[in-house]
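Reopening closed ticket. The problem is back. First fold of the pair:
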Amino acid sequence: MTRAFVLVLDSLGVGALPDAADFGDVGAHTLDHISSHMGTGFQIPRLTALGLGHIPGVEKTPRTELPAAATGRCLESSPGKDTSTGHWEMMACGLDSGFPVYEGGFPAELIDEFVKRCDLPGVLCNEAASGTEVIGRLGDEHIASGKPIVYTSADSVFQVAAHEEHYGLERLLDHCRIAREMFDPLGLGRIIARPFVGNSGNFTRTYNRRDFSLLPPHKTSLDKLKDAGVDVVGVGKIEDIFAGLGVTQSIHTEGNRDGMQHTIHVAKELERGFVFVNLVDFDMLFGHRRDVAGYGKALEEFDKDLVALEAELREGDLVILTADHGNDPTHPVGTDHTREYIPVVAWHHGREGAAGVDLGTRSTFADIGATVEDFFGLKAQEGTSFLGELSSKEVQGA
């Protein structure tokens, strides 16, 4: 039966895009800079064998003589470097204009409305900030005052951090739903609930994070697949990114390792369908925190989990490894995403047709969604499928 897996290694960019200067990201290269930092001890044997180091523009990552998969990279045609823009474009919903951002903080009238509608004593922060830094700095005041911590970043996000016990997780989620209603007319990309736990000096964010996304402006590849009767399984924050649209089953995860375990379980049971996986730790725990060694170790862990996943795959399964943007942990400017190409490593499990194939530089992330649609016999409205470059005609979609 037909099955496709797209695994998004969240933020694993492979080199600055031509317009990176417009975003302050000249010289960014998430993968190569991690590889350089890790040195000769960097152990990603399966990714190496598949050909990760053969992607155009990748120079510091281990190579093999003949990649087992097809390799290439995609250029982001939409303006932006955030999660929603990347995933939406990947699934045939590219944007002509970027989401609004509020790096100087949100206007007083919006904060006042949020405070009134949520019946709050006020908010703290209201500036662009690092999530871990801001709860460390304002966590005690938040608990004492009852005011949630509201902050943003270079992305189009309204983030609300609150203590799960003192503020209440369901209360936080309710207030984020109110914020979503407020910001819908303004086109803000995401409202993000950022719950945390712990005591003074030892606050820690939890995996109860929720993203409340703006609705995609038109149908995505996920919608088309679902409408065609294909099961669409979202693992991680996929359901949140697409506001629940086009997903038939959603699996909440608590980090990369948990996400891969759930994906392995799905691979054991699913008869036919598309499995779309987001592995957020690369971005959330290591890219944003500028933890180069932690990012490298997470890639080594993923390499082992990928081998375990492959043991449950069936002959002919389509597998694509990619990313949604960059987040170079060595980048000297801030702690935000970086405007980069994304990798493409693709193959049919158990078949050799993709070995050594150079997919080159693709003009849009949408080529990934187009390939998945093609695999299930659909005609893509955005992007160009590379399915035919992975195998002979007679085995496509088998």
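Second fold of the pair, where the issue appears:
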Amino acid sequence: MKPLGNGSFAAVLEDDASTGSLGATSDFRWVSWALAAYFLVQTIIRIAISDSLRIDEAQQFVVSQWLAWGYDAQPPLYNWLQYGVFEIFGTSVASFVIVKNLMLFCVYITYHKLLRLLVVDKRLAAIGVLSLFTMPQMFWQAQRDLTHTVLTLLAVVLFIYFVVSTIRRPSLFSYAMIGLWAGLGMLTKYNFALVILSVLVATFCHPEGRKRLFDPRLLLTLSLAVLVVLPHAAWMISNMDLVLTSTVNTMAEQGAGGKLSDIAHGIADLIKTTVEIIVPTTVIFLLVFRQSFLRSLRARSEWSDFIARILGSTAIILLALIFIVTLTELRDRWLLPFLFLVPAYFCLKLDAAGRQSLSLIHISEPTRRSIKSRIASYA
């Protein structure tokens, strides 16, 4: 395999290939099959080794016995999904584990699909999705205990995917999908509201995205989002104490009582948790790509900037919440739906660096055709 983004003639020619090329299709297939095999093995192992349940898992066996517009301090979408599976296949550890691993498989596949939409070098899409396994919260904690957060991850990727699709090629369908996943995302975890705000900022800062925000079809997006959320929102208004008190108390439970000291504690915890999530991924990218990775951090493209604005806007919003609400504890599961975009950001940076190096190489059309014919004769 040629080094990524090395500016070789072969890389120039490969970058000219479309998404539907044979090589790109092959990459998509082997990644899909590899992920399917991995989560199938995870499912079998989890069912075989133990019938015991973690806290979040045990909760599903309790609240998923009936349907309601709301249950506790968490939105109800995962509960509804699990209720349907239990009704069809029976209440068992196997029914629970299969749902979770199917959701995780969908997260990874959709993440791969999003990256393939954004990068020129499709190999970086494979690298990006496999890099999720460098995050302990993704390959370990998600399997061990997470429930609602897993569905939030899927909603985040699909929401961003349809936003990008709309920026590139708007359609009534893409606007409808944005509204649908905005609404469904709010039914997975309440912190999805931060994703919506951050993506809105990133879209407004994108030249084409700003135009899409003033498209009349945005009314369809807003209408669908409201319709999806409305029944639970009505329940939430009637149970605001349950929703807000539990969440705010948990996120402020490390407070010492002093406003400034609590703010300092919250900022320190935000930095600490962020570092814990992204450092393993950053170190592995540095070890694998070395100087190329460091140089790529200075490269920019429209989509690396887009993801950067999502991450930056989220950080600003979280800092504002720390100052306003005096949050003192931010657990990794609360930050994961934002920070799991970091591998995608790194891959977009590498892709941008490759494009910039290629743009420095000027090849005449006759020379380009000659090189293509020579490579074809060697293949």
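Update: turned out to be a display glitch only; the data is intact. The two ends are 14 Å apart (CA to CA). The chain has one domain: 9-378. Please close again.
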